[in-house]
## 1
Amino acid sequence: MALTLFGPRSPDAGLPQQFLQGLRTTGLTHWLWVLLGLMGASALVVALALGVLRVQTIATAARLTETFALVVAEQTTRTVQTIEQRLELTAHLLGHLDAANTAKGVGG
């Protein structure tokens, strides 16, 4: 003997229809639809708010990234300028030392 859960022999086959009929007679279906509508509207509002926040976050991140890139570029430029000045100073000092050694007859 096979056991069917949702077949025509199931004793609970009419339960959903009985439940819906009971809801119709008590007027609860109207309130269920209102509740479902409110839930759907709330979900839509939350989804729209999250979408707006996502767009704002992406725009803010882009601005911050651009600002960070400018700061890094400025620091890199300053570092390169400092290195260039030190190399020029070293070349100048070596030129003076070479001239002094040549005058003394030490190098050449």
Note: Residues 31-103 form one domain.
## 2
Amino acid sequence: MATQPTTAEVGSNSTTEKQAKTIRPTRNLPPPIQVQKTSPRFPQSPATPTPITTAISPSHRRIAIAIDLSDESAYSVKWAVENYLRHGDAVILLHVQSTSVLYGADWGSSTPTNSPNSINSQSKQELEEEFEKSTTAKANKLAQPLKEAGHVSYKIHIVKDHDMKERLCLEVERLNLSAVILGSRGIGASRRNCCKGKLGSVSNYCVQHCACPVVVVRYNNNINKNNNNNNNNNNNQGGEEEEEENHEFHDADDNHPN
């Protein structure tokens, strides 16, 4: 006659069954793949630089101020310090230098400083070095309001590219920014009719394609001249009220007509 299994044997069999259910494969599984999200406009490629990472608290913002070494850029930096930046923000002065040696602001029309024939007769390397020194010096001068503010950290980031608008948007995405601030020239009466009040080419391109909110700071040359004349003549009483500057805040998801 068969004997019934003892209580110890039943417990042993139950433990063995549990262990059999929790056995894991002995081979090493491949590590999980981490996918780097990127904009469809800029697919990952060997030529695409890797994202820059900086030890910044998650509560602090990374703000870029796009500069082109013009009066508009200087005004944008000053405006950002007085109206936008707050304690703990990390600021990047972002400048895209054209691969050609140009004069004037990158945001507007530029003309080569030398004809192709004259460039060939000069040392290209010397011209580039001189231009880079001048660019760095002007960028440091534009950063003066940030130095005086003292409540934000900043760095100057200069890159070179033949397509400044597209490279600017690429750097904005690569640097993982919270927002980008850039200046735009005020449009005079003669140009306002033909341009229908639209933003400049670079400002409009950034509003359409940047992967973060864009703040466009308008700089009005006429208002600036009137302010200087009033200060020089000490005739501020009884004058007409000055027009308030218009600053446009654009989110990356906004749809704007071309």
Note: The two ends are 94 Å apart (CA to CA).
## 3
Amino acid sequence: MLLGKGKVLYSGAPAESKNFFQDLGFRCSENENIADYILDIASDKKNHKMIRTRMKQDLLDSINLTSARSEAYTLSQSQTLPSTLYSPSTKAESSPLMTENSVLSVSQSGNAFGWQIGEDKLKELNAMRIEAAQSTQTLRPHTHITMDEIDGDIVKSHRSILVEIRVVFARTLRNIVRDRSLFLLHIALSLSLACFGGLIFNHVTNDLAGFQNRMGAFYFILTFFGFSSMSSMDLFISERPIFLREIGAMYYGAGSFFLGKAILDTLLLRIFPASLFACIFYCIMGLQATTERFLLFSLTLVLFNVAAGAICLLVGVISSRVGTANLSATVVFLVMLLFGGFLLNSQTIPTSVGWLKHLSIFSYAFEILMTNELKGLILKFDAPGYPAIPVYGEVYLKTLGMDYANRYYDVAALALIAVSLQLLAFLFLSLQVPLHSTLADLDVENFKVARKGLHH
């Protein structure tokens, strides 16, 4: 017996359940378990009214057949048949308050209420027949049945999306606490590389070597956070079977699942490690010690790490395997690295591929870090064999094709890329939501023909 919201949707032999739902338009793939499939059908309230209508139609047919048989048997056995109904096996008296569900259950199982039915039961069956006919008056043959009419009678769920997000968020956080190796690895790598890199570039000088060290340090930081964000790709790949099963059973929506996962990944693996790295590295390296410049440096690392994580998130949602996702993300980051402003001068890029610079998160972040550090700084151009010449940092920036005035534009671009890619990842995730819980082949004309018997 299959129930939906306390109402019988199917009652009969398990082997016949697949044919029953296929007759209604549902299609079950050969590789899917029929038990899980019909549970998915029952979980979707949009399917209940159509199934119940079919059940009532079968009920009317069964009642008509039962009444004819019972009247004939009552006439032939009027002297011997008692006026109450007894079960052939237990002789137990049947309740006069038989519910609709119980009638549907017996009718669907093929019992047809047996053949020993008395006058009281005939009255009850007639009442049930009238009630079933009244409930299907709106489904007469000349009525055009649409999905909107079916959906109109559905009571909307009052479950808030915030509740779904909270449940998914709590479960994801619990899983991270139980298996916190990835989180601890991100923290350990951020701490160790911040100390290691800070010691290598410790007390950077204001000369030509110092200019080169600043460029190398900033690009090393961006490269580290770019490739370390590839851990986000496994966020949805490993749990995709669970996600498809649970969302097919309507435990939560795709938006709730995505937000619960993405928020935790952003907070624990993107924002926190980048902020920790910035605090340690900035002080040890000896960059310009002003609050404004430090905050802009930290904000740039955080936004860059979030944007890189969004890229990997999108690749992970699209890809079906981790190996494919790793290769795809590596190629994407290598192309972005090439147009980031360190390996290739932006002023010499061919116009045919110059637009790729605007898609590189390395280009925006590298310009912010360089202009934030070199603005107002005087560096000595001390080439070997030549006298040292003081040169303003702005001259070096212009040589690289960078402008200090673009820093806030670059910050906005990083934030926009991060948000846009996460929205795009959510869109692709939503497209993966299974559609088998709804009608696959809904044919209105078949409904009209099937309900002609109800009207007549």
Note: Residues 179-440 form one domain.
